[in-house]
Design goal:
Layout: E1 3-8, H1 11-22, E2 27-29, H2 35-44, H3 46-57, E3 62-67, H4 75-86, E4 90-95, E5 122-124, H5 131-154
Parallel strand pairs: 1-2, 1-3, 3-4, 4-5
């Protein structure tokens, strides 16, 4: 069964790292805002950004936070985490620092972005340092991690 998920990430820094993960056939992602569309949304203001997020979260069972070097410091990622929790969605974190960007560069491991929700949310850090092996580890396990996050969230008050 394909789960409908929302991907949360630091858009400017990690969008290209996230593209392969978003294409995994076992999960149905939210719509990806193209750079020009995202620029228009952000120029329109906070209300437009929140409206876009709300539309993207509708019908999702889980939010996957793709954790890059700066993800934890991003205010909109924190907003997405808070809204996902409030909507009773599953939450799961996946460190993507070992995935290479188009220039072939890996990044530093990012901090946990879940704050006070950390005891309730599992974050996974693929053990492989090679980009292809790290991607394969994520691809092989992400659907299971999502199922676990959704089941865990349903059992919490």
């Amino acid at each position: 069964m394909s789960r409908h998920v929302f991907y949360s990430l630091h858009y400017d820094a990690d969008r290209t790292r996230a593209e392969l993960i978003r294409k995994l056939p076992t999960l149905t992602p939210n719509l990806d805002a193209k750079p020009a569309e995202w620029a228009t949304i952000t120029r329109t203001g906070e209300f437009a950004i929140k409206r876009w997020f709300e539309q993207q979260l509708r019908g999702r069972s889980c939010t996957i936070v793709l954790i890059g070097a700066e993800t934890a410091s991003r205010p909109w990622v924190r907003y997405e985490i808070e809204r996902s929790w409030a909507l009773n969605l599953g939450l799961v974190g996946v460190h993507i620092h070992h995935l290479k960007d188009p220039q072939g560069v890996q990044s530093e491991k990012g901090e946990n972005p879940f704050g006070p929700l950390t005891p309730f949310v599992t974050s996974y850090d693929p053990p492989e340092t090679d980009s292809k092996l790290a991607y394969r580890h994520i691809a092989d396990n992400l659907a299971k991690w999502v199922d676990k996050a959704v089941a865990s969230r349903r059992s919490q008050p």
